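Sequence in, structure out.
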Amino acid sequence: MRQYHYHQSVGTTSSVGSSLLALLKMRCRRVFFLVVCVLAVVVLLSVLNGHKMISSHVSVLMSDANRNVANAHEGIRNFLSQQLPNQPQTQADPQTGGPNEKTASQEQIPNRNIPPADHIIWPNLNQSALSITSTTPIPQSHSTAKLKDGASNGPVAKPQSAHSNGPVAKPQSAQPLTPSKQQCSPRRNIVFFKMHKCSSSTVQNILFRYGEKNDLDFVIPPAGNYLGHSPFNKRFMLKLPTREYNILCYHTRFSATGMAEVMPKDSVYVSILREPVAMYESMFTYTKYEAIYHLNAPNPLKQFLESPRKYYDLHGGKDHAKNPMLFDFGLENHQKDDQFFIDNMIEKLDKRFDLVMMTEYFHESLILFKELMCWTMDDIVYFTLNARSKSSVLRDITPKMKEQIKQWNLGDLKLYNHFNKTFWQKVRDFGEERMKREITELIERNEQLYKYCIAKVSDNDGKVWHPPGVKVESLQLKPSAKNDPQCAAMARTELPYTALLVKKMKSKYHLR
């Protein structure tokens, strides 16, 4: 029994164990399957979540990239619009009157004959004429007369037949070609800030003649032709028994405060600028910087431009050796490399001056000046004065030297670019077609007077002041015109005219 029972017991235990084992295997399979499923779900969720995070990061990065690209494109467009030199010029279509686009790709010598009014070329009025980094010259107006230093940017106001010494009938006074829409009264009070080497002597002669004809009072030096070499102060001028004066047009350094002390509140403020490369060459030669800086190379300007800082820092004569136009306007030597002071100066000048003329567009400038002053065409006729003869103009300025001059005078370049834009806006406001008509009239009027008055041009007149080694042109009247007051006044240079005006004002106020 016991044995049986034993066997029975063993048999029962074995059966139960088998059942438990089978159950365990089944449960294990289920657990394993469940674990696998859980792991699969976890992996799948991780992958999906990671995908979302990656997508989110990618979206953010793409958004930032697109925004940066857009900002870069906008910056490039702004930079290019301000800096690129190859800007189109606007030329009036003679048939339609609309603009044709023309790009100035190389320096050209304009035709010296007077062009028809429809062929006067102007730059794009919305863009600057100069680039900081380019050697491309600014576009030249075919209307512009012979200007400073014997360089011609257009037709010369001297006809080929003017060399005849025979008598010519004097032209009649010009009638207004295009009267202003509104009646105005001629303005008599003006500050003309006379800028060095910018054809300012020619403009000054216009003011001399107008002031003399209308018995106006000049802010005038008691001797010489400078109202001091520091910012203007009334102690440098001839004192007259009057509280306010009418015309200030002599070399000095600009001071709005000092000039306001002697000029009426309604005074017009006008100046003139010149393309910085040409202006700097003229200033460098006229001031004899090769002697100041002990330059002994065949081309002193080229030698200086190779190491301008070395010469500038070691020697005196800094005033007009860097950014000379800004210096005349009042920028101090220690401020010439400071962009803050340069920008601040340009902003102040823009608010103060009613018109800043351009030497390269001299006729356009005079027409705008006439309009501003409500003067007549006869008031602005002129002969070119104080111009260097061609033999005294440095011609071998290479493209590299032009670029070096611009880099050395970045402040003047910025000044010129700023007022070049304001100038062409004024031309557009005046009206291009009207401007062409009035330029044609001015050119014809100048030619007629030149034929009547001038016998020849001389560059060795001992009565005309000039620096050693620099020849300056002077005009010699025809015998038949020597007693003509207008001819004599238009050909009279600054020093003799100043002496005449001082004498007249002293007589007017009974001064000794």
